Amino acid sequence: MGMGFCALHRARRCADKRAAVNNGGGAVKRGHIYALVLLAAALALAGLGHYYLLYLRVYVWDAIVFYALAALLMAWAYRQAGAVPERSWALVRAALRRLKATLRGLFLRKPNRLLVMALAMANGLAALVAFLIPPPAGLLLALPLWAGGVIALRVLIPWPHRTRPQPARVSSIVTVEAPKAQPGRYVVPIAIGGWLLLVAGLMILGLNSVPRLLETFDIWLQPRLAGLHVDAPMPPGVWLPGLLLLLVGMLLIGWTGAGAVRLPGLSPLAIRTSRTAIGPRPSHRWSALALLGSLVWLGVVRAAAVESTHWSVVPLWLTVLVVQAVCWWRVDRARSVSPFPTRVGRYTWLLVPALMIAFSVTLYRLSDVPNSMWGDEGAFWWWARDLAKGLRANPFGLGVYGAFPVMGSLYQSLWVRVFGPTVWSWRLGSVVAGTLTIVPLFFLTRKLLGTRVAWSAVALMIGLPYFLAYARIGFNSIQPLLPITLGVWLLIEAVQRHSRMLAYLAGVSCGMASLTYMSGHVGLALTALIWLSLFIGQRPLRRPLLGLGLCLVTGWLFAAGPFLLGSVLGGRPLGWKVAESFIGNAFYGEAIFSLDEITRRYPLWEIGQQQVFFEPRLYALLIGRGLIRTVLSIVTDGVATQHYLVGPLAGPGTVFFLAGLAWALSRCRRLHLLLWSLWTLVCAVLLSVLNTFPPRTAHMATIIPALAALTAAGVWLLTGLLRRLVRPRWADSIGVVLTVVLALWGLRTYFVVMPQRYMPKLEDVMFWRAQEMGRGSSVVFVVDEPYPPEFRVWGIDEFDLGVEYHSVPIEEAHTTDFRALCGTTCRVFFLPQDVDAVLAQLHAQLGEGTVQTHVDAEGRAIGLEFVPDQMHGG
Questions:
Q1: Residue 32 confidence (pLDDT)
Q2: Burial category of 685 from C-beta neighbours within 10 Å (exposed 0-12, middle 13-18, buried 19 and up)
Q3: For residues 323 and 293, is the Cβ–Cβ distance under 8 A?
Q4: pLDDT at residue 52, as a whole number
Q5: For 778, which DSSP code?
Q6: Cα–Cα distance measured from residue 372 to residue 367, given in angstroms and rounded to the nearest whole number
Q7: Is 685 a residue whose pLDDT tops 70?
Q8: Where are the domains of the chain?
Q9: What angle do CA 99, 100, 101 make, to 5 degrees?
Q10: pLDDT by residue (tens digit) across 768-797?
Q11: Rounded to the nearest 5°, which phi and psi values hold at 805?
């Protein structure tokens, strides 16, 4: 029996070896991958050490730190490789039978200690050469030693041979959902601990001073973090512990598993994978129509390149987009694909009253809140007003500051032309574009996260102060929200229905976003990443995804092509805004560091009208600065202090946003969560972290739908956790109440707290007072320092109010006839230091009146307003 058992054992070993050979030399174990990752990281750190030692000898300690980290990773890889059993002879025998399997699996299929030691010795020699021999001779010796290790690691990375199995097709539906994890024993306590850590972290970030317990830690941190130039409103002894607590809390919530953090009513996204039936191809007439539309589109591109201002350019362009969409609809029809739903659900009709409520909120006191204007708004008003008056401009050219597309100003001019040149009509364009975003946001969130989360996302977005701040001013940074959200939703629908028309329309929508604001280009990047994640993660969908990707790019090119290609062919500075916002901009680097620091190694480069510096060490510091400031602006107040922003960008529900983001990041293999994670990270990194003077809230406004959706997800995650503790109906009621409370809290923050923080300047006070007065009235300003004698109120000059403005120098106030200047109705403004001289003169000429004092946010008087009780004729 023993001999038979041994023979059976030998037969099994031979069968295992043959299976290993047929499968390409054996499967790659997790330990092998760990060792490879450790080696790659060690080589990267060693390369940084060589760089700092070769080129930047003033940063020797930086090189030593990189070398130390590389040595630690090498030691870790050495220990990891020792745990791998030695099977060299079996692999050699397999290599004799199959050379390809040997080359792929002989060495690094099981990384051993000999390889780790060889790489460590090579990079040690490179470090020694870099230290002893000055460049460029040291470069010729150190670089090959390091590069040889990198090349060897790359060549020997395991690529296991895979044969495509041909299983029997059971179902034609792919569920984009990972297997559900079973809830552990301590899942609920850990999740509760994560929520408590999030609350504790936000409470620490809300402190104005360092607690006594952390004073020593803060003193130790300040000199070590001074190089980052974070310039946060709180010291590092506050923001660093707060961010660490938030990170630990997010890790706990993300680690708890699907059993504890389950959204009520959430179902996986099902996508059909069976090939669509191919019917008769569209007739030659449709093909000829598509070709004709393409030729007309080329004519539009040429018109954009030569700066044509003819009125027919935009109608022709829109006609081409519609014709191409109809042609793709015919293609879908031939493939038996229905891009439209068979019936309209009740939720679609419920969106009508939801839209009415949303517009009632966003239009409430639109011309009075905010009662001031930001500096850059004036340039946008000039273009909108002049286009409404009939200014001829290339619709695919550059308008405001020679950096923003004309199409965004052209959209604003439509509302100014319809309702007149007023502040209300100017802001109306932003209100409409922002409020309509809730329609695609609802359908997208409902498909991916469920109906409850969708309604909560709509309510939270309307009540988000970040959204209201940009949806109620003349900036056009809110315009990309609608086309980007619509494009993402259409892409998801296109993938689920295999509709090429919907994929084309998704591309068109993202192209429209590129025509509004420069941050609208992120729409293409976001949809491309979603498509790429599906292509990599869902193998059965790769073939249909190729066609959908082609339609997506085609739609984007037809929509944004006239602007991009016209700018390139016409020689317009398309990259000016990109260079101005790039983290390596010399103006930004000099403001944070100094001109000597940013030009220590390399001179400045000229990119159009912008100068760019190159210094990797300073780049790393600026990226760290941008990351910290962007994260702080999202989770705490006081960092984003422009454009009427109050509180954290995530709004009153910051703790729920962090919980939703942690849950989404921990399950990034699932499409319905990967999308929101990508949306948040792409907008935050590309539009703020890597930009100058972060946080760039105007550029990053495209993150608003993701903020609302993840906050809503966090609310219902807490509800799902409460379902384990109380009755499900009570837990659901808590979710509804939380949504309403957070939305109302956000509205109070914007309409009550914001006006008290952003008090109008005296110029804004005079402009808004002139809007309240009738035509033929007068505004008189007694000018004194710091205003120049020829000071004018911008709003009175630029808006057709019918109100006369008179400027009286303080030296001439005692001889001025205010009765003649006032006319029938007037307001007289003067500065606090001139009260005695001016007020006596006004009382003598205009009689007793009412004096109103205007103050700033700190309560200091900035000016006084005199209103005569009884008006006299001139």
A1: 53
A2: middle
A3: yes
A4: 60
A5: E
A6: 10
A7: yes
A8: 2-155, 187-260, 285-366+420-570, 762-868
A9: 90
A10: 999 998 888 999 999 998 899 889 999 999
A11: -115, 130
474 DSSP β-pair partners: none
Query: Whose structure tokens read 């037969």?
Result: 11
290-303 pLDDT per residue, tens: 889 899 999 999 99
Backbone angles phi, psi at 457, to 5 degrees: -65, -40
Q: CA distances (Å), 163 to each of 22, 24, 160, 166, 167, in order? A: 9, 9, 10, 9, 12
Distance CA 460, CA 781 (A): 43
- For strands 173-176 and 849-855, give the pairing: unpaired
The total number of residues shown for the chain amounts to 874
Distance of CA 618 to the CA centre of its chain: 23
pLDDT over 90, % of the chain: 42
Query: What is the token pair recorded at 66?
Result: 């990189």
Tokens for 535? 């292509």
* pLDDT band at 872; cut points 50, 70, 90: very low
- Residue range 94-153, pLDDT digits in tens: 444 444 444 444 444 445 555 556 666 666 766 666 666 555 455 555 666 666 665 555
**Residue 611 backbone dihedrals phi, psi, to 5 degrees:** -115, 135
CA dihedral of residues 145, 146, 152, 157 (deg, nearest 10): 170
Residue 502, token pair as written in the block = 């919907």
Rounded CA-CA distance 247/194 in Å is 9
Instruction: Give whole-number Cα distances, 870 to 813, 816, 846, 852, 858, in Å.
Output: 21, 19, 8, 16, 33
Residue 479 banded pLDDT, cuts 50, 70, 90:
very high
Cα separation, 227 vs 619, whole angstroms: 12
Query: How far is the first Cα of the chain from the last one, in angstroms, to the nearest whole number?
Result: 126
- DSSP annotation of 372 reads S
Task: Say if strands 849-855 and 861-868 run parallel, antiparallel, or are unpaired.
Answer: antiparallel
Average pLDDT over residues 809-827: 86
H, E, C per residue of 208-231? CCCCHHHHHHHHHHHHHHHHHCCC
Secondary structure of 138-194 as H, E, C letters: HHHHHHHHHHHHHHHHHHCCCCCCCCCCCCCCCCCEEEECCCCCCCCCCHHHHHHHH
- The percent of the chain in helix, strand and coil, each rounded to the nearest 5, is 65, 5, 30
User: Which residue has 């109608």 as its token pair?
Assistant: 315
For 695, the token pair is 């946080």
Q: Say if residues 864 and 842 touch (Cβ distance below 8 Å).
A: no
Listing DSSP states for 299-311 in one string gives HHHHHHHTT---T
pTM reported for the whole predicted model: 0.80
Place of tokens 């009286």: 808
Residue type, 817: D
Helix axes 113-132, 30-54, angle to 10 degrees: 10
Give per-residue pLDDT as tens, 725-741: 888 889 889 999 999 99
Residue 632 and residue 243: Cα distance in Å, rounded?
8
650 closest CA partner among 720, 733, 714, 738? 714
**What six digits make up the tokens of 511?**
């192209």
176 torsion bin: left (phi>0), alpha (psi -120 to 50), beta (else):
beta
Measured distance CA(622)–CA(689) in Å, rounded: 9
d(CA 635, CA 12): 59
Q: What does residue 472 show for φ and ψ, rounded to 5 degrees?
A: -125, 25
CA–CA dist 360, 355 (Å, integer)? 8
Among the listed residues 332, 462, 358, the one whose alpha carbon sits nearest the alpha carbon of residue 745: 462
Per-residue DSSP letter, 474: S
Cβ atoms of residues 397 and 406 within 8 Å: yes
